[in-house]
């Protein structure tokens, strides 16, 4: 049977009730809410676009010169010890008491060695070692009628002209023809040895009868001038811009860098200055009539080239880098005084020790090479680890504190495969 509801005249009551309950508000952070804006976000939407800023380039790393000064302090102590040995053997070396005249005689022989070492060290710092620099004094001394002459100023001009010709030749061989610097220096040596006949003819054409002289200012002042020149060059070499230019010159000379005009000009000018310093090591004793021999150099003649090791020993004991750019400030002066003092002490010993002179020079040269190697490595800029380049394992979940899955990050399981 079917139930039929009765008809009702009254209106049906609304059975619904309004709940008077306050809204709970937005969900708390961490439940699908972004940490920055506290607004609901899609947990699978990925990271928002990040604005990339361009940071300023970091300044170039600089050499650590503190190790060079530490070595020069040690070298100062060694030099004082060598001078003390000379003082102890003053009877055999100076012929008696230590007088100003006796010391000046030794300074007159020490000044050419210091000039040679300064010029040769300059070519090393340029990264283009020129083996012709130590041969320049022999060229001047062999032909004083031309390179000193009746008027020493004219002779000095001839000396500078010879240095300029050799500098241009060396630059062409290294920069244009890409000849290694040491081989270009050997070629310059051969050119010096082969030019004696032509220069002798030129000397006869000039008509100079002998070498003129200037008033001797004193060997002490000549030595102090050479020392000031060496120290000034060392101080200039501390400037970062100068060292950076030395590196670019080295690149232009050995073919690893660009042959830009500035680097080629510095190479030409630096080589000319080094050759001129070497020539002055022969010009000064001739023009001031100093009774001294020029020691520690290449002796160039038409028949032979003789190597003296003292210049190399002084340069490397001073801390000059064989790879260019780096060098000392006071080291060349201190090393020259120390080596010269030790040579005086060695020469004053008994004759039975003289046969070991070559072995002593070899030991000092190897010591100098070891010192220069160590200072070059310690003086290089400190290398810091690049944090951005490190490859660390990344989590597939966001690391901003929400703990949400981040689809833009690599999956750890995928990376493990």
UniProtKB/TrEMBL annotation:
Top-level taxon of origin: Bacteria
Residue segments, region Disordered: 387-417
Annotated keywords: Membrane, Transmembrane, Transmembrane helix
Transmembrane segments: 69-87, 107-133, 153-176, 181-199, 219-242, 263-284, 304-321, 328-347, 353-375
Protein's recorded name: Ribose/xylose/arabinose/galactoside ABC-type transport system, permease component
Organism: Glycomyces sambucus
């Amino acid at each position: 049977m079917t139930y039929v509801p009765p008809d009702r005249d009254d209106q049906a009551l609304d059975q619904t009730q309004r709940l008077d309950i306050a809204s709970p508000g937005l969900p708390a952070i961490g439940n699908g809410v972004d940490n920055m804006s506290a607004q609901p976000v899609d947990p699978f939407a990925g990271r928002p676009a990040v604005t990339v800023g361009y940071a300023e380039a970091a300044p170039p790393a600089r050499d650590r010169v503190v190790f060079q000064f530490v070595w020069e302090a040690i070298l100062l102590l060694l030099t004082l010890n060598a001078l003390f040995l000379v003082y102890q053997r003053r009877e055999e070396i100076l012929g008696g008491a230590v007088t100003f005249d006796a010391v000046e005689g030794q300074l007159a022989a020490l000044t050419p060695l210091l000039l040679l070492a300064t010029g040769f060290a300059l070519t090393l710092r340029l990264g283009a070692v020129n083996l012709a620099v130590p041969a320049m004094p022999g060229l001047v001394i062999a032909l004083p009628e031309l390179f000193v002459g009746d008027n020493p100023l004219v002779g000095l001009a001839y000396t500078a002209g010879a240095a300029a010709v050799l500098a241009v030749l060396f630059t062409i061989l290294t920069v244009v023809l890409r000849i290694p610097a040491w081989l270009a220096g050997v070629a310059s040596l051969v050119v010096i040895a082969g030019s004696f006949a032509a220069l002798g003819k030129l000397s006869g054409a000039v008509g100079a009868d002998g070498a003129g002289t200037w008033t001797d200012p004193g060997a002490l002042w000549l030595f102090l001038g050479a020392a000031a020149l060496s120290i000034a060059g060392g101080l200039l070499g501390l400037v970062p811009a100068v060292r950076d230019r030395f590196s670019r010159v080295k690149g232009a000379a050995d073919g690893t860098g660009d042959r830009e005009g500035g680097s080629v000009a510095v190479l030409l000018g630096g080589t000319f200055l080094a050759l001129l310093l070497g020539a002055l090591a022969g010009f000064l004793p001739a023009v001031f009539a100093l009774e001294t021999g020029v020691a520690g150099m290449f002796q160039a003649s038409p028949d032979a080239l003789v190597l003296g090791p003292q210049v190399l020993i002084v340069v490397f004991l001073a801390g000059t880098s064989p790879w260019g750019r780096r060098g000392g400030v006071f080291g060349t002066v201190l090393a020259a005084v120390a080596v010269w003092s030790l040579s005086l002490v060695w020469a004053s010993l008994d004759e039975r020790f003289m046969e070991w002179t070559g072995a002593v020079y070899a030991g000092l040269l190897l010591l100098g090479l070891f010192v220069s190697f160590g200072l070059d490595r310690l003086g290089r800029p400190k290398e810091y680890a690049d944090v951005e380049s490190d490859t660390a394992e990344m989590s597939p979940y966001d690391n901003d504190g929400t703990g949400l899955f981040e689809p833009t990050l690599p999956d750890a399981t995928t990376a493990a495969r």
